[in-house]
Design goal:
- The protein has about 180 residues and is mainly alpha-helical.
- It contains six helices and two strands.
- It has a two-stranded antiparallel ribbon.
- Helix 1 crosses helix 5, helix 2 crosses helix 5 and helix 3 crosses helix 4.
- The radius of gyration is 22 Å and the shape is globular.
- It starts with 15 loop residues before the first helix and ends in a 27-residue tail after the last helix.
């Protein structure tokens, strides 16, 4: 009788598999972001990554400005400015809620729905062309893993930004020339 093979164990965070996956994600995320930023900038209408993420969230569910701020880990005024820009561009409609006039219902305009749809199609086509070089088992594994990564990262806001140190705005002057340290 052949030896019985044990099913692979899921590795806990901090274990080698999770660490290797985290390192791979940290290495690839800036590259993916850069590609997406440039593709969205060339899209008509031109979108920033933050605008695209906000439009996706609003298209996917009933979400408020404060919920967008929480998810993105940014301030209320920053989201307010983002939403004002999307509204001015004709991509977003905001209506006061009758039960709470301090809150607004956010919905995509017809132009906003078209923009999200065409931006998604553009990103999908261009990124899938890049990933066509992957062997099918790796592409399949990536397709299975990324929804879990999305659910994990999307379920909670990112860590808060640390406060800026007092000298961050005005770096210290360089040492005088000729002085050795």
């Amino acid at each position: 009788m052949p030896p019985r093979r044990e099913p692979p164990r899921r590795q806990a965070p901090g274990r080698p598999g999770a660490t290797a996956a985290a390192e791979a994600l940290v290495a690839v995320a800036p590259l993916v972001s850069r590609w997406m930023e440039r593709l969205l900038a060339a899209h008509e209408p031109s979108l920033t990554l933050a605008q695209f993420e906000a439009l996706l969230a609003i298209a996917g569910e009933r979400v408020s400005g404060s919920e967008l701020a929480r998810r993105a880990g940014v301030s209320g005024p920053a989201v307010s400015q983002l939403l004002a820009g999307l509204t001015a561009a004709g991509l977003l409609e905001r209506r006061e809620l009758s039960e709470d006039r301090r809150r607004q219902q956010l919905t995509l305009s017809r132009q906003g729905r078209r923009a999200v749809s065409s931006a998604r199609a553009l990103l999908s086509a261009r990124v899938s062309a890049l990933l066509a070089e992957l062997p099918p088992p790796e592409a399949d594994a990536l397709a299975r893993a990324l929804p879990h990564v999305h659910a994990t990262l999307g379920g909670s806001p990112p860590p808060r930004r640390p406060p800026h140190p007092p000298h961050a705005r005005h770096p210290p002057p360089p040492p005088p020339a000729g002085r050795r340290m």
